[in-house]
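Retro notes
What went well: the complex prediction finally ran end to end.
Inputs used:
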Amino acid sequence: MTFTSILKSELMKYKRSILWKGVFFIPVLSFILLSMDLHMRYSFLMTDEHIKSLSKFGIYDRVGALIYESHAATLWFVLLNLSIVVVAVIVNYMEYSEKTWKQLMARPVERSKVYLSKWIVVLAAAFILVILNGMFLIIIKNLFHVQGSYNLILRYIGFELCTILGVVSFQEFISCYMENSLAAAAVGFAGSIGAYMLAQSKLLSYLVPYANVLMAMPVGDGSDACKAAFFGIVSGILWLVIGILEFNRRDIK
Amino acid sequence: MEKNIVETVNLTKSFKNFNAVKGINLSVKKGRVYGFLGPNGAGKSTTIRMLLGLIKPTSGQVRVFGKDFQKNRMDILRRVGSLVEAPSYYGNLTAYENLRVSAELLELDYKYIDEVLEVVKLTEWKDRRASKFSLGMKQRLGIAQALISKPELLILDEPTNGLDPSGIHEIRGLVKKLPKLYNMTVIISSHNLSEIELVADDIGIINRGNMLFQGTLEELHSKSKGQICIGARDPKKLKNTLDSCGYEYRTEGKDVLLKPRGEEPEEILRQLVLKDNRVFKFVEVQKSLEEIFLDLTGGGENI
């Protein structure tokens, strides 16, 4: 069976599921939170004094302050990580809850293609989340007349797209590996919320996929975000390969 | 000679400290309904999962359509339809949409969907969500999914589990007509002998991972070595005589049931009469299929 038909049949399964509604709702929620934040605190957030105080984090202009406000203050990085966790859990829970793995794997399909099709669904959802959030940032920049270049937002989107690869692959691996979807969700939730703490260590901030997303903010010369993007891509590939190998060897009970 | 569609050679599966299937040699002939029988936990589902490549055998070989399964998995599965234990479906989708997922995956024309819905009598409910189906309807949807590719081999693992008598009757009718309708070979597993007896041509009995019997239904019946039912005026004396002669027996009401160990029945009767037993009943009785099954499986104990 071709990969296209496997992917198409995979996408058909999510009709009437909350998956895609959630994927569109989360960036909207983040947009509302950021708009409220800016509406109430614009006069403070965009002052020169505040921008100066942010320079210790490597933020030197108003667009940087806007990204900082979105990414860290309104906790977009947590929402993004959590959303990916939920999507990966739903994608796999769908097969575990009604024991459809056995029906699927008793078909003439290659296991690696099935795993890859699920990974692509999670990746597509993650990409939509990032792109929508980026678009909303641009809308807010225009709505609130935030001065500065769009370049920083585009770089930010780029870094996010790279760092989420690790989260997508790792979360897809554990959600597929663990029959208990609640356990997989718990690992993801702990990782997403603990990312702040994990990022206190330079080493862990690169090694833990959830912490990579926190580091995606293009502050300073952008070297930290570059490294996080690099580690995001590496762990994305690594966990994808591990996931496929494990899935190929697994007994479907 | 009839061609074997499925053959296993010393098929074994071990999980850590537990041997689920112990070197079984299964052979299923083309165009037949093969009943795979055994108590719960006997190793039926593990064997079926190995036939479908869901789990890897610890040792042994599976050959389907004359080809080695490991080397020809895709080719073989293209010609196989299956329903393993409980029916699998996506509850958020309708019956039609569930079948569309299967049709898309197998690159089949959507026209087959209506055809299989008709076969399993679900056309009327094709737009109802599968989560709202009764167990019988879910089971029929599972069979429709197995049939959609018009397989040459259909494997049904416990298809009547949890169904009420009318549901069992419906599934049984369906299984019986499939070989004629699609010219397919069917393997159906169950722990229920009476269910298998009504649909199967050949039977395999498994318990604790060992294949205890394999052959036609008639061969299984012929295994029923007769028992002798004896009635005497003084049952106590009768038992004393049997004890002194070293016979093994069991009592059923006032009757004594004796399993001859090679002795001719007339010889047993002669011994009883010579020892002054007033025998009024001496009948050879055939064992029912259920009794044969219980004998073979050691009482049909679940594991």
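What we learned: The mean pLDDT of chain A is 93.
What to try next: split runs per interface for comparison.
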